[in-house]
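We were asked to recover a plausible sequence for a given structure. The inputs and outputs are reproduced exactly as logged, with field labels preserved.

PROBLEM: sequence recovery
POSITIONS: 117
GIVEN STRUCTURE:
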């Protein structure tokens, strides 16, 4: 039987709501790599998929939808033929660049293991 924890409003005050909101978006698997790829330039869906090993089309599509709903990227349809969809960062998404680069440098210095890429 699971132990139920009582909600303590004082504990909620100890949690930074900004950090909580950031990690609700950036803490999801694949969101960081997607944003990282888009930092360089707008990218077509197929190129995003190729740039991120291991991500399925469905997962990429789901994450792109979530990032768009969070206001971090915009979906643009390039009229065809062939019809192609590309994604670019919004001003809010582009503003993450210094923070993401800093996190990457921190990871290189403090997290063990080699990157698979």
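RECOVERED SEQUENCE:
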């Amino acid at each position: 039987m699971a132990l139920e924890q009582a909600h303590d409003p004082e504990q909620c005050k100890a949690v930074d709501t900004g950090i909580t909101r950031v990690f609700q978006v950036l803490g999801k698997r694949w969101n960081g790599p997607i944003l990282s790829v888009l930092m360089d330039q707008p990218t077509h869906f197929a190129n995003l998929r190729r740039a991120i090993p291991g991500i399925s089309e469905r997962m990429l599509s789901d994450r792109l939808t979530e990032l768009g709903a969070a206001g971090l990227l915009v979906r643009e349809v390039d009229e065809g033929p062939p019809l192609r969809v590309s994604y670019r960062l919004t001003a809010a998404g582009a503003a993450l660049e210094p923070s993401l680069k800093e996190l990457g440098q921190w990871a290189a210095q403090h997290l063990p293991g080699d990157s698979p890429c």
